[in-house]
Specification:
The complex is a heterodimer of chains A (237) and B (473). Chain A is of the alpha/beta class and 237 residues long. Chain A has 9 helices and 9 strands. Chain A has a 6-stranded mixed β-sheet, sandwiched between helices. Chain A has a 3-stranded antiparallel β-sheet with strand order 2-1-4. In chain A, a hairpin with a 2-residue loop joins strand 8 and strand 9 (208-214). The N and C termini of chain A lie far apart (38 Å). Chain B has 473 residues and is mainly α. Chain B contains 18 helices and 4 strands. In chain B, strands 1, 2, 3 and 4 form a 4-stranded antiparallel β-sheet that branches. In chain B, helix 2 (17-60) packs antiparallel against helix 4 and helix 14 runs antiparallel to helix 18. The chains are: A alpha/beta (237), B mainly alpha (473). The A-B interface holds A 11, 41-42, 45, 48-52, 69-74, 76, 78, 80, 82-89, 93, 97-98, 100-102, 128, 148 and B 1, 4-5, 8, 11-12, 15-16, 154-156, 158-166, 471-473.
């Protein structure tokens, strides 16, 4: 469903992504681990059509997002690290707005349910988003993504700012998505959450996917060790 | 989809305290300006009507008098107060309200309304038109500078792009919201401004005039708003958008109108009033009364009279020669006045042309000119009045001189006429001007407004669409 074939992206002289080969099939959740600047967000941007590969190809369900970004984006629900919302509108109004733009028009009761499921308290739903904490905004972002009922989820540090319970609920929710046949690609720093929800974990370093680990049968400590080994490799050599 | 975007934009406007404060401020200013405008227009119209009636009464009640003496006793032509002066006074307060219609001399319009203003007043008259043209465009600037730059800086432009929203829908939503806000404001503004006049019966402008005025404001404000949206879409940040948008407002609402007036006056300086008076004395009076211009002028007019009455000699008609000479001077002086005042008017019209072409560079200046034109408070309306007043002066002085010429016989200046003649002298009636005539005169300004509107649409659509498409890393 998500295919990257030797996708390379450069910004001037800096290679942000170097010949990335990646496939995320329906029902699969892939987490990308890596330090800042490793190329995780660039990978997501290529799939969203916010960046165009200099070499190689990227496809979203067979669609080239660089050529047909709107068509590709309609298949994707995207949660960035900092969810951007309209501060003058309430959480419910923001959700209703993005829901309509996604081609749905779900009733307010259903939208309220989605916000509560994302972890937002009932009394917060009708308050202007301008007064929300980062975590609360992330929860609205989760609800927007869930409301879209997309077949592909692209997540960039989605649990940043979430309280532990909300993060746990979110992980559980992700599992139901992949169980329902969605393809999920998540960029994260959180090894333990990655282990919990991913079927495969990709470790990225300096724009290169250096290793892919099937998470089944490997514990979080082992994944952390592999990750740290890769991070220390340059320093040791 | 577009409806969803417009509803969201409108909801944000309504929750934006700046919008509410500016809206309230505009309404307060407009209400104050409107009430003051209608009061001033009403009292001004009443004062002029009273003065005209007094002038008529004094004229008719002057008793027995020599007709040429009566021509020096003289009458006034009062410029009627256009009812839309309450909305847009233009240059009305600074233009003469009355012309003294006396024999031998073309007088400039005198008695300016501004002369009655309080000395302590630091600013020109607060008018509803000024509030909309200057404060209204400032309000639009403050409200719209972040229309696209704000979305970009907040990250919502990217979030919108991520939903799969097309650039076309985004632009339609933004421009649709602008049209809704500007259209709504225009309706409210015109209701706030014109209702008091309509309710009190002071508003006598036709429906076409008011509709044209409203359309002009809608067109100008929409064009201005779309340019601000385009600036917002072109800017990398909200602060840059604010600086550019305010710069645009200052340029087109303050600098160009002010500099335009100064530029026009420096390119085509006014003729000094004293210089004009001296020229009149030297060219219209002295050559006839003490120079050698008298004989040919009298001979020419005498020939006209002989032809009119089919006589070979003036003496055969039994007419008064003194009156013939007086009217011959009028005919002689009128040619001089046509030239001297023609030069003065030509300079005013040249100044007006400078502003006309500058208006191409400023939708606000174009609107100011068209608005005062439609309100009949512009320079053109003033020149129209002075020309009509002068034509009236020539008609009534000729009527009086010819009465003396034909009826004085041997009596000359001892001949007197009475109320019967005075009542035959018509009062000055300003000839109305049609809306189509005004639109024809202001076609450059209309084209400028339409061009700004079109440019606003094209730039807002192109740059907002590009901003949406460029939402890439």
């Amino acid at each position: 469903m998500l295919h990257a074939d030797r996708a390379t992206k450069r910004y001037g002289t800096v290679t942000a992504l170097d010949a990335l080969n990646l496939r995320v099939e329906p029902g699969e959740t892939v987490c990308l681990l890596g330090a800042n600047g490793a190329g995780k967000t660039t990978t997501l941007n290529l799939f969203l059509g916010f960046a165009e590969p200099d070499e190689g190809a990227v496809r979203v369900d067979g669609i080239d997002p660089a050529r047909e970004p709107e068509k590709a984006r309609r298949l994707i629900a995207y949660i960035p690290e900092n969810v951007a919302l309209y501060p003058a509108l309430t959480g419910l109004e923001n959700l209703a707005y993005f829901d309509r733009l996604s081609g749905h028009s779900q009733p307010p009761a259903r939208l309220r349910e989605l916000l509560v499921e994302a972890g937002l308290a009932e009394d917060q739903i009708s308050r202007p988003v301008g007064g929300y904490s980062k975590g609360m905004r992330q929860k609205v972002g989760l609800a927007i993504a869930f409301a879209k009922e997309a077949r592909i989820l692209l997540l960039d540090e989605p649990m940043s700012g979430l309280d532990p319970k909300a993060a746990s609920d979110f992980t559980a929710r992700l599992k139901t998505f992949s169980a329902a046949g969605c393809a999920v690609l998540m960029a994260t720093h959180d090894i333990f959450r990655a282990k919990e929800c991913a079927s495969r974990i990709g470790i990225m370093k300096s724009g290169t996917l250096v290793e892919t680990i099937a998470s089944a049968g490997v514990d979080a400590n082992r994944i952390e060790q592999i990750y740290l080994d890769h991070m220390h490799a340059d320093a040791v050599s | 989809m577009t409806g969803t975007l417009i509803r969201k934009e409108f909801r944000e406007f309504l929750r934006d305290r700046r919008f509410l404060v500016l809206f309230a401020l505009m309404l307060v200013l407009l209400s104050a300006a409107s009430l003051d405008g209608w009061n001033r227009a009403r009292s001004d119209a009443a004062a002029r009507a009273h003065a005209a009636a007094s002038d008529r009464e004094i004229w008719v009640e002057q008793g027995e008098n020599n007709p040429h003496g009566a021509a020096h006793f003289a009458r006034y032509a009062f410029r009627p107060t256009p009812s839309l002066a309450a909305f847009d006074p233009g240059v009305f307060d600074f233009a003469g309200a009355a012309v003294w219609l006396e024999a031998h001399t073309q007088n400039p319009a005198a008695l300016r309304r501004a002369e009655d203003a309080a000395i302590a007043t630091p600013f020109p008259t607060l008018s509803a038109a000024w509030v909309i043209q200057v404060i209204g465009t400032l309000a639009l600037t403050v409200l719209l500078f972040q229309a696209v730059a704000g979305e970009r800086e907040r990250g919502t432009l990217r979030a919108l792009a991520a939903t799969g929203l097309s650039a076309g829908h985004f632009v339609a939503g933004k421009t649709g919201a602008v049209l809704l806000v500007v259209g709504g404001l225009c309706i409210l503004i015109f209701l706030a401004v014109l209702l008091p006049g309509a309710m009190s019966g002071d508003l006598d402008a036709g429906a076409m005039r008011i509709a044209t005025l409203a359309a002009s404001y809608l067109c100008a404000l929409t064009g201005f708003a779309l340019i601000v949206v385009a600036i917002s879409a072109r800017s990398r940040s909200q602060s840059a958008a604010f600086v550019l948008a305010i710069g645009f407002w200052v340029s087109v609402s303050v600098i160009l109108p002010v500099i335009g007036g100064q530029l026009a006056a420096s390119l085509h300086p006014d003729i000094d009033e004293q210089e004009l008076k001296n020229a009149i004395q030297l060219e219209a009076q002295s050559p006839f009364w003490s120079g050698d211009a008298r004989e040919p002028a009298v001979a020419a007019y005498e020939a006209e009279v002989l032809e009119e009455f089919g006589a070979a000699r003036f003496e055969d008609l039994g007419f008064d020669r003194e009156a013939l000479v007086l009217q011959a001077h009028e005919e002689f002086a009128n040619e001089v006045y046509d030239r001297l005042y023609g030069e003065l008017y030509a300079r005013h019209e040249a100044q007006d042309r400078v502003l006309r072409y500058l208006a191409i560079a400023s939708p606000v200046l174009a609107l100011q000119r068209l608005s005062s034109g439609l309100a009949e408070t512009d320079l053109t309306a003033q020149l129209r009045f002075t020309r009509q007043a002068e034509a009236h002066r020539r008609r009534i002085i000729e009527q009086l001189n010819r009465d003396m010429m034909m009826n004085a016989g041997e009596s000359g200046y001892a001949y007197t006429a009475d109320r019967t003649l005075w009542e035959q002298i018509p009062d000055f009636q300003a000839e109305p001007v049609s809306t189509l005539e005004i639109l024809e005169r202001y076609r450059i300004e209309i084209l400028a407004l339409l061009a700004w509107l079109l440019a606003g649409f094209i730039l807002a659509i192109h740059l907002s669409g590009r901003a949406m498409k460029q939402e890439r890393l």
